[in-house]
Design a protein that fits this description.
The strands form three sheets. This protein has an eight-stranded parallel sheet. It has a three-stranded antiparallel sheet with strand order 5-4-6, covered by helices on one side. Strands 1-2 form a two-stranded antiparallel sheet. The chain is about 50% helix and about 10% strand. By secondary structure, the protein is of the alpha/beta class. Helix 1 runs antiparallel to helix 2, helix 2 crosses helix 25 and helix 13 packs parallel to helix 15. Helix 18 links the parallel strand 11 and strand 12. Among the domains are: about 60 residues, no CATH class; about 280 residues, Metal-dependent hydrolases (TIM Barrel, Alpha-Beta Barrel), CATH 3.20.20.140.
Length: about 500
Amino acid sequence: MCRRFRRSFEAVLAFLMLIATVRGASAAVTPAAHAAAYLERIRSDRPLLMHFLERMPKGADLHHHLTGAVYAESYIRYAVEDGDCIDGTTFAIVAPPCVPAEGRYPASRALSDFAFRSRTIDALSARDFTPSPADPDIRLHFFAAFDKFDLVTNGHWGEMLAEVVARAAAQNEVYLETMLTPDQGAAMHLAQTVEWSDDFSELRRRLLAAGMATAVAAGRRNLDAGESAMRAILGCGTAHPDPGCRLTLRFQYQVLRAFPKTSVFAQMLAGFEMASVDSRVVAINLVQSQDEYNALNDFGLQLRMLDYLHGIYPRVHISLHAGELTPGEVPPEELRASHIRASIELGHAERIGHGLDVVYERDAPGLLAEMARRHVLVEDCLYSHELVRGMRGRDNVLPIYLRAGVPVALATDDEGVTRADLTTSFVRAIEGYGIGYVRLKTMVRDSLDHAFMPGASLWQAPENFVRVPACARDALRDVPASRACRSFLAANERARTEWREEVAFARFESAL
């Protein structure tokens, strides 16, 4: 019933948009209204739908793990280049020496032996997952993949960034925030040299004195090297650059929350310190499965760490994985522990990723209303939720957030491991949940308006999408006609990026 209602609502909305601005005795159909009506006509025609969605502007991908976004074929290539091996039982990439008699084969075997290659790709991703006694659960298989390709990640950031940026740009994204560990573990090693203290101020002092500045500097050098190699691969600055050169790339410092508390605090501190001195690092985020022991047991402690550090570094943004638990995965008490509310109220999360257990929160309606009122965006990894968590139809949380007026942006999560891309989530939103063009465009706009970019928004208020007075009268073209709008965009990166997307929407809709 709810799904039919949503479909009917979108259809009615599309029809109403056809009766556009009336001037005198005539009515004009706007390009946006035409796009909405066109999508309704092709909803069940997969080739036309794919053609439509591939060209549609998609804004920002705000929930994106760099290592999980790279496809297995690339990791195999890196292993070959590095002279690594592949374990013949687990199909993990392992360090040499490669001894076939002991089950460690040269990675190059995955280039010539089709069956071996296929099993390696399946192990390094969720492709063609089939439960077996040794590998019974897709969620465990999904998380295990990260350990299997971990060996080759830190040495290939340039290639990895080039891959994900080129893919994003090819899908008409204009902004990407990807999660990674810039210092490649230096802060975690530093944590092993200091004693834990319940006094966060003292613990921060110890870590700073132990050499945190060195870890931060190493992280910045790693980003420099990765971006430089990425630009070279994409041909940025040459006569024929890849479209990815125009995409805005930013980083979130990921904190591995399943580690001991001193390590978690050290990572957080490194992230806050780095974000304070490097504009490329725009936020802190806690990663790893929420049902791991330390992630659950230290949940409150970790939020108190964030609360303390937020007080020291109030200008650093925070986006948190929150509410990633599902019934049966943990005891009912954990589902009702208000992880989402605490992440927002104590952890200062401006956005949350996943939010799967919102219906089990204490006073879920009140929480949803609070999120809508405070404009806390949900990074909805729709395809990942369906594939890895089995959350389809009524089990999926996307309609819940939308009905409550909570801003939502579709995101990929780990597109390499799930063997998907952002367009896949757009397709699933339309085919699985009756989402129409008006809603899709709203989610795209929200993805940019809630991105951690500096400067004012193009919009007068969140979620209203009425342009600020400086640009209200300008036609949508690359360079606005008015000096006031040009000056406003020049001073505000966020508004400038949103203007660019509105121009892209105008061209897309006019070309249908």
